[in-house]
Amino acid sequence: MERPGGKGRPVDLLVEGFRKGTPGAFEAIVRTHQDRIYSFCARMLSDRDDAFDAAQEVFLSAWRNLAEFRGEAALSTWLLRIAANRCLNRIRRRKSLSEREAPWPEPAGEGEDGIVFQPPGGEADRPDRLAETCEMGKILTEALSRLDPGSRWMVLLSDVEGFSYEEIAALADVPVGTVKSRLHRARMAMRRLLSPVA
Amino acid sequence: MDAMDCILSRNLLSDLQDGTLDPATEARLAAHLRGCGECAGAGASLLAVRKLLRSLPPDPAPPELLQGILAAVEAEGRDAGADPASVGADATRPFLSRFRIPLEAAAAVLLFASVYWYQYRQPPAPAVRPPSVLSYGPSSEAGKTSASRPMAAIEDTAGGSPPAVRLPHGNPGTARKAGPAAPKPRTWTAENLPSAPAYFASTDSERIVPVVPSHGPTDDPAAAGTPAFGEMRSAGAEGGADSPPSRVFAAPPSRLLRPLPYGRDIVVDVKREAREGAEERIAGAALLLGGIVERMERDTAGAAPGATGTVRVILPESAAARFIEEMDRIGTIPPEGKPVATDLPAGPRPGTVAYAVRIRVR
Predict the structure, then answer these.
(1) Cα distance from B86 to chain A (closest Cα, Å)?
(2) Could you tell me whether strands B352-361 and B308-316 are parallel, antiparallel, or unpaired per DSSP bridges?
(3) Which chain A residues are within 8 Å of B38, Cβ to Cβ?
(4) How far apart are CA B291 and CA B313, in angstroms?
(5) Which chain B residues have a beta carbon less than 8 Å from that of A131?
(6) Hey, which end of chain B has fewer CB within 10 Å, N or C?
(7) What pLDDT sits at residue A94?
(8) Which of A22, A160, A164 to substitute to test the interface with B, most B CBs within 10 Å?
(9) Helix %, strand %, coil % for chain B, to 5?
(10) Please, which residues have CB within 8 angstroms of residue B317's CB and are 6 or more apart in sequence?
(11) For residues A102 and A114, what is the distance between their CA atoms, to the nearest angstrom?
């Protein structure tokens, strides 16, 4: 997986082609990054239609602003930043957000309320085997959807996309310590949600 | 070592896995985890969650997402007036900014071409036309000047005052006021000779080449050693002696000078201590004899041995002998430096003689 950020990365040939007006360069960029961006939006928004629209907005915004892209970070990092902002804006606009989001798990509460699913009884259907059958993605996505949106995008960027704490702090405009504490709480909540699995 | 409770230890689990704890705290936490099964289990499950998140694969985007994006981009590009087919950064940039670098390059090329054209095609100033404009009438100005110069031979010439020279193109001062096309005078006479600094500066900017010395076939063994000033061109090539004088202008400094189809050479050897001002003395002699100075060239070597300088003058034919005598006073004309007759006309017009006086430091 490409690590975001970093200096001295090689020139993105697709970006160069886009800047030179090479036909098909932008389509190639979309093809390269659409899965990642769409997945991020889907996990952030917990709604595939919203994710579709958000991903489309992300690439449209990139098309408008890619000429100013300086290449200080990877293109995927830049796109994910746009996606995070777009998704947070969408979440803020949701009127029924409180109804659609699960309450933030209490740190001390480790009861059955926070568990996403019931562990099956059979050995072959044990949750830890689900990952091997490509079900773990759905489980994780479901667990992520239970997180507070303000922490979810941090978990997605940090633990899924590999952003550093500093990058997330810059995006969220909060101190790095705040990012760390929020992430730790979110991870612990994920641990409780996934306790039958992890 | 202080004991660490479970709440604090669990809050530090992420930092422990990130490796950002200081050694002391890490040691305390490790000690706690060794003795607390619940916290150790929480740490292990937290690490497992993080690994699961890290391995979370992206969901495939629906196929219609790409089409939707491209359609939106194309629509926006069409609204912006850009070419939808060229979906790219250039399509979003202002039209002129796309050609910024080519425009700058074109401007540089145009500037270079203009400068070169100006240098190469700079309108030639009116040619020196001594034969048609030399007036040998009395000139009080020249007479006054001659009185102040130690040129007894000139003052004793028949007719009293030396002939005056009339500018062929009028007074440059009035011409400058009259119209924009007032050319810069290429020659100076006793009437309009500027002050010495301007005189010096102007000679360097002149574009007339010196008269090419005549080195035609001669039986004079002394002339065989005449310093070569360049190849001669035949008189017929420029129209012959009766044709109007050719205005031969030098090419840009980077180019070779072209010879002139008339004139004679004189070599004047001057002593090192007399080198300073030699050009001015030669030019003054020519002016006092009713001639004009076409060009002065100075050698940057100054008064060093072997340094040279050239003064090109045009004189009335009747003043040629006196000019040679004056040159012998300014310096010494070696045998090989005396003017010799060639198949080229002596001057640009009948009745005139052009000399290229070459100064040598001995």
Answers:
(1) 5
(2) antiparallel
(3) none
(4) 7
(5) 52
(6) N
(7) 74
(8) A160
(9) 45, 10, 45
(10) B346, B347, B351, B352, B353
(11) 9
Residue at B192 is within a domain: yes
CB A21 to CB B59 under 8 A?
no
Residues of B in contact with A60 (CB under 8 A): 69, 72-73, 76
Q: Output the pLDDT for position B140.
A: 41
Give the C-alpha separation, B66 to B34, whole Å.
53
Record the tokens describing residue A90, joined without a space: 């969408």
Residues B268 and B155 in one domain: yes
- Domains of chain B: total: 3
Same domain, residue pair B193 and B322 = yes
**What does the H/E/C string look like for B241-259?**
CCCCCCCCECCCCCCCCCC
Q: Are residues B116 and B142 in the same domain?
A: no
Average pLDDT, chain A: 76
Nearest to B270 by CA among B360, B189, B181: B360
B24 sits in which H/E element: helix B23-35
Residue A59: what pLDDT?
A: 93
Same domain (yes/no): B134, B118:
no
Residue A48: its chain B contacts at CB < 8 A? 62
Rounded alpha-carbon distances, angstroms, from residue B66 to A33, A183, B209: 10, 33, 74
CA dihedral B246, B252, B254, B255 (to 10 degrees): -30
Could you tell me whether strands B292-298 and B264-270 are parallel, antiparallel, or unpaired per DSSP bridges? unpaired
Count of C-beta atoms within a 10 Å radius of residue B208:
21
Separation of CA A13 from chain center:
25
Considering CB atoms only, which of B42, B48, B86 is closest to A21? B86
Cβ neighbours for A102, distance < 8 A, ≥ 6 positions apart: A145, A146, A147
Predicted local distance difference test score (pLDDT) of residue B182: 46
Q: Can you give the pLDDT at residue B173?
A: 41
- The alpha-helical segments, DSSP class H, found in chain A are 13-19, 25-45, 48-65, 75-93, 97-100, 127-130, 136-145, 149-155, 165-172, 176-193
CB contact under 8 A, B69 and A39: no
Mutation target vs A (from B69, B98, B101; most A CBs, 10 A cutoff): B69
Enclosing domain of residue B109? 93-122
Q: Please report, for residues B108, B210, B325, the alpha-carbon distance to residue B281 in angstroms, rounded to integers and kept in the order given.
A: 46, 18, 13
Buried b vs exposed e over A86-122: b needs ≥16 C-beta within 10 Å? bbbebbeeeeeeeeebeeebeeeebeeebbbeeeeee
B190 found inside a domain:
yes
Question: Which domains can be identified in chain A, with CATH numbers?
Answer: 1-98 (1.10.1740.10), 101-198 (1.10.10.10)
What are the pLDDT digits (tens) for B114-124?
777 777 665 55
Residue keyed to tokens 């050009």:
B279
Report the DSSP pairing between strands B308-316 and B292-298. Answer: antiparallel
Nearest by CB: B85 against A20, A23, A66: A23
pLDDT tens, B61-89? 998 999 999 888 888 777 766 544 444 44
Let me know how long chain A is: 198
Among candidates A31, A64, A159 on the partner chain, residue whose Cβ is nearest the Cβ of B53:
A159
Q: Which helix (H) or strand (E) holds B62?
A: none
